[in-house]
Model the fold of this input.
Amino acid sequence: MSTRPTKDQLAAAYGTTIPDVLAPGLDVLFCGINPGLYSGALKQHFARPGNRFWPALHGGGFTPRRFDPSEQAQLLDLKLGVTNVVARATARADELTGDELREGGKLLAAKVLEHRPRWLAVVGITAYRTAFGFPKASVGRQEQRIGGTHVWVLPNPSGLNAHWTPAGLAAEFAALRAAVVTR
Done:
């Protein structure tokens, strides 16, 4: 199980990065906006206890049980991975600039072209719109691809995103899972 970082560890995490959970030929590469300080301190994706990524991943049928962020490497066994649009950890995603998101989109596209996952699932509609220049994009399957990789946008699972309930998030993850299984 993940341990709770100290106040000093959180402060020291500002601007740090987390290694990707990535391998060639994944079924889905999930892509967060950027790591929060909690994640940066623990070097684990979506590590803050209030983040709903791990419950939604399980609720959507991607994992046989709810994984703890400390088990993120086990995603590779399920042909799943995790990365971020912007690598640096911040206290809040709104600290990122549009330029950072657009540069992150270019770097992410290069990563996708290199590793060729079947699907890229960007977790955060606003970040996706900015990073890839599609201001009218909505949650769900996107028309554009990156190379041969299909793109899907999921809601941001942060506990700060009150627009989406846990059940609603799980349903969106399940819709992606259904598309992954049928293709």
Q: What stands out?
A: The domain at 7-182 is CATH 3.40.470.10 (Uracil-DNA Glycosylase, subunit E).
